[in-house]
Design brief:
alpha/beta
Length: 127
C-alpha cells in the first residue's frame, strides 16, 4: 500500500461506516488495517480471511485501536500461533459486539476480553 491508497481512502471513503471484506488475503488485510484509522465513521468491520494470519496479536491490537468501531466480526485462521495475546494494560476498544471465528481462541479468551471492556455481545466459534 502506498500514499496513493491512503489518499484514495481519505477522499473517497471518508464517510464509510461499514466495511465487509470476504475471502481477503491476510497480508492485504494486515496492510489495509494501517489505513483504516483515518475513517472517522467506521463503526462496523466484517473480515473473512482466506488464508492463515501471520501475526494475530498484531492484527487484534490494530483492530482494537479503531476508535469508532462498535461491531466487529473476524473469521481468522491462526492455527500455527502458540504466542498468547498479552493482557491489555492501557489499551481499550469501544467494540460492543464482537464475533470471532478462529482456531485456538479459547486459549486467549481472558486476554482478548481485557481489550474490549464495553462488550455487550460476544460470539465465538472455535473449531
Amino acid at each position: 500500500m502506498s500514499a496513493f491508497i491512503l489518499i484514495c481512502i481519505e477522499l473517497k471513503l471518508i464517510k464509510l461506516e461499514t466495511l465487509i471484506l470476504n475471502k481477503i488475503s491476510s497480508i492485504y488485510f494486515e496492510n489495509l488495517l494501517k489505513y483504516l484509522f483515518i475513517l472517522p465513521y467506521l463503526s462496523s468491520l466484517i473480515i473473512n480471511c482466506e488464508d492463515e494470519i501471520q501475526n494475530k496479536n498484531k492484527l487484534y491490537k490494530q483492530v482494537f485501536r479503531l476508535r469508532p468501531l462498535k461491531y466487529c466480526k473476524l473469521s481468522l485462521d491462526d492455527s500455527n500461533q502458540p504466542e498468547q495475546l498479552p493482557i491489555a494494560m492501557k489499551e481499550s476498544s469501544p467494540i460492543e459486539y464482537f464475533i470471532l471465528n478462529s482456531t485456538h481462541v479459547l486459549n486467549d479468551l481472558n486476554n482478548l476480553l481485557s481489550y474490549i471492556p464495553h462488550l455487550k455481545h460476544l460470539s465465538i466459534d472455535s473449531p
